[in-house]
Amino acid sequence: MRLWLLRHGQAEAHAPSDAERALTPRGREEVAQVAVQLQGRPLTAILASPYVRAQQTAALVRDALGYAGPLLTVPWLTPDSDPRQVLAQLDRHDAGELLLVSHQPLVGALAGLLLHGHRQQPLPMQTASLAELDGELAAAGCMDLLALVHPRHDR
């Protein structure tokens, strides 16, 4: 199974609620930079948090790739979701290549759990960071990190 973990792009600092924070222009640019890493990948699904910035990130990736497969909104990819619950939910998805679009601290903790079998070593994920993990199954300590790509912030 190939699992791609993408943290949303930079978002507005203020909104009526955290869930309503939208991407900034810089955040859209960050997502465009890392989306090229997914070009030509045989994604089986894109799963995204219901928060606005994650939905916008997933839509930007879908459009950049010309992806016609399912874009699923799931409630278990929010910032404070439990990584163990995410693993239980992933069991319900076909093996293949899945892209999860979510937030910190979840993406870092989830990657740490998949790589090390515990959450004490989260993977550092900046805005629009993309981690590529591979393994026989999405289970604690059963995946390897193939790549971690961060957007450029030189402008």
UniProtKB/TrEMBL annotation:
Gene designation: sixA
Tree of life domain: Bacteria
Protein name: Phosphohistidine phosphatase SixA
Xref: InterPro entries: His_Pase_superF_clade-1, His_PPase_superfam, SixA
Signal peptide: none
SMART domains: PGAM (SM00855)
